[in-house]
Write a structure and sequence with these properties.
283 residues, alpha+beta, Thrombin, subunit H, six-stranded antiparallel beta barrel, 3 helices, elongated
């Protein structure tokens, strides 16, 4: 019973102290308010209250300033992020436009070469576009969008503005297959342009030719140009074939080993010419 009575007295005492403390704080606040509103003079009590409240106000004001600074910096970061997104989008659009412009210029350059070749050669020909490729090593070939309905016949030579490409070996009404000159099964009569010596150009399956049957007593140098010989009536005489890039002179045997780099870039074939004979056109 004594313990319970003691606890009750302590609880009442704490409540009394809280009420007294609250009353003092309210009184001080009231005095401060009255002295501020009712008089322009600062008394001792006013100064005491001001000194007590000043640090609290300074702390609150400092916190508000930091909050405003943080908010402004955060808004600036958001603004910069949005600006970066906009600039990145504009950069991507500019790159796409630049790519289209470069592609248009490259296409224009290729078409100009084809047009110049057509005007300079004065040969009847059919314009064709490459629509497919056969990557097999032995039978390297491409498919073009021209066939018998367009006047293409089996055996027709195929060129572009840079030189010979190959020969038509399969024909359908609207499409044809062209055996590339770099195919190992291809063989073309050619001439060394400077010495006018004849040889047989064979494909290697890679992006080079092999020139066979050129005797050792013939002077051959790197950089010599190779052109079609015109024998057999397949390719006209003088069409560009390639350039000699390697000459191997062996002690044994009667012929040079000659490597020729094509004048045609087989990796970028797009537009071609299928050459026709005069009698085909007349017919």
């Amino acid at each position: 019973m004594r313990k319970q009575s003691s606890r009750a007295r302590n609880t009442r005492f704490r409540l009394f102290r809280l009420i007294v403390f609250s009353g003092v704080i309210l009184t001080l606040g009231f005095i401060f308010l009255v002295s501020t509103v009712g008089s322009q003079k600062f008394g001792s009590l006013h100064k005491l209250v001001l000194e007590s409240a000043g640090p609290v106000q300074e702390f609150v004001a400092s916190g508000l300033r930091h909050f405003d600074t943080f908010r402004e910096e955060y808004l600036d970061v958001l603004s910069v992020r949005e600006e970066n997104k906009r600039l990145w989008k504009e950069l991507q659009e500019s790159r796409a436009l630049l790519h289209k412009s470069r592609e248009a210029m490259a296409t224009n350059t290729r078409l100009k070469k084809l047009l110049n070749f057509r005007e300079a050669s004065n040969l009847p020909m059919i314009t064709a576009t490459v629509i497919g490729k056969d990557p097999s090593m032995w039978f390297r070939s491409i498919i073009i969008d021209r066939g018998t309905n367009d006047g293409v016949v089996k055996g027709s030579p195929v060129t572009n503005g840079e030189g010979i490409v190959g020969q038509v070996f399969t024909v359908a009404p609207n499409y044809s297959k062209v055996l590339l000159a770099i195919a190992p099964s291809s063989a073309i009569d050619v001439l060394l342009q400077k010495s006018r010596v004849r040889g047989i150009l064979k494909g290697t399956g890679a992006l080079t030719y092999q020139l066979d049957y050129v005797l050792k007593n013939v002077e051959v140098e790197e950089g010599d140009r190779v052109v079609t010989a015109g024998y057999g009536g397949v390719f006209p005489t003088g069409l560009p074939v390639g350039v000699v890039t390697k000459v191997i002179r062996k002690r044994r045997g009667n012929f040079h080993e000659i490597e020729v780099t094509p004048s045609v870039d087989y990796r970028t074939l797009e537009y071609l010419f299928v050459l026709q004979k005069r009698e085909q056109v007349g017919h």
